[in-house]
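To close the chapter, one final illustration. This time we ask the reader to focus less on the individual chains and more on the assembly as a whole: which components sit near each other, and how the overall shape emerges from the parts.
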Amino acid sequence: MSKKPLILVSNDDGITARGIAHLVKVMKEIGEVLVVAPNGPQSGMGHAITVGDTLRLNESSVFEGVKAYECSGTPADCVKMARHFVLKDARQPDIVVSGINHGSNTSISVLYSGTMSAAIEGAIEGTPAIGFSLCDYSHKADFSHAEEIVKRITLQVLEKGLPRGVALNVNIPPKRNEPVKGIRICRQANAKWVEEFVQRFDPNGRSYFWMTGNFVNFDKGEDNDEWAIANNYVSVVPCQFDLTAYSAIPTLNEDWSILN
Amino acid sequence: MSKKPLILVSNDDGITARGIAHLVKVMKEIGEVLVVAPNGPQSGMGHAITVGDTLRLNESSVFEGVKAYECSGTPADCVKMARHFVLKDARQPDIVVSGINHGSNTSISVLYSGTMSAAIEGAIEGTPAIGFSLCDYSHKADFSHAEEIVKRITLQVLEKGLPRGVALNVNIPPKRNEPVKGIRICRQANAKWVEEFVQRFDPNGRSYFWMTGNFVNFDKGEDNDEWAIANNYVSVVPCQFDLTAYSAIPTLNEDWSILN
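The assembled structure is written out below.
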């Protein structure tokens, strides 16, 4: 019988968040689990890492029967510490899973997502990696239907592997009256946030701001993650960390007069 | 005579860093300048934004004759506040420039770079945007040779524009005995950081860590940013914020048995 896969679990909502409890529960059914996750919320941290400051890492007993550490750093820090400290000279993970994020990471939100930065960090190391998000921001969001979806996708990736340099951004529709219609491979929708800054004044009369915003979807296609979620499909976007806009290279080479 | 371009300047080393002073100096020669930059170092912040916490924004007199604000947030926050608060209902920038970063942002470092997140944020808004970095980490790094290069590239972008959805990641070689050989359009090199965590103990006997690391370059090509810098060329990588790995979509559609 083949060895059980070693699964590294992280997230950006913090080690005590509801989503990671669901993720760990599913992963325990699949393999051996190691958790290294932030010791508090790290939402919106994008691909931040801790430079110029120190990091703390402490064992945690949050998950019964699972080796777990809480880290003072970002999700990307967590994956780096897992690989290069906790598992230094040890067997490396067969897969990195991150989430389940409490809220959507579709479209442009992938850039700001700490959940996805943990997965991308896995992909940089050459490990198949998946970020899972539930598209429901409500306090009472129901994660129960996500478990079966997370399990099917994780098993599929363990069986088939992933192209090198690719991590999956998986978004799961909110629980609706009917079950999800299925799973779709998608592209990142063309959409963005339009921010508003709500100005307030502290007790000393100095102003401060809350950033709020509206999500604006410019995309009319049916092959993108926004369409999938709106139509009750799970969206799976393969994401790369090579940011080169290859199609722009010949354009710039032709247009620019300052090259040599 | 045409109106002078409105130039939004930000960075990630903070509003008092040396690199942004050089950048503002050059931009004043080109157009009307507005600075919104972090009130302290934000290196390694990747594309982080401030969610779940408040932001401060205060006018700054750091730059003579230039309207400037210091912001408590990340580089991405700065660009968002510039556009949707400082310039709300006003003329929007013709270009966003970020830097000059004190250190390299070649290859995979683009993901962790606050400098580039400010530029990418500009590109998301549809504005031509450039992140400039000087590949010299030394305390005494000489930025003087960068000014001419920054000016030429900025003028070129103002003249020609940039493809939509693209921001430029410009890295400038350290000052050497001979002038730079030229400017090259490059792709992001295939390289990564291998971290080491140096463990220390605080006065209470509790452990903490410093993240250090070595940069490992796997790339043998001569068309990438690492090669350019090593060979004394300025590297210009067009970067995109659509992370979709398009080539992986048909692969996954063929391989996976759980789709419908």
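Chain A has one domain: 6-190+221-255. Residues 6-190+221-255 of chain A form a domain with the Stationary-phase Survival Protein Sure Homolog; Chain: A, fold (CATH 3.40.1210.10). With these observations in hand, you are ready for the problems at the end of the chapter.
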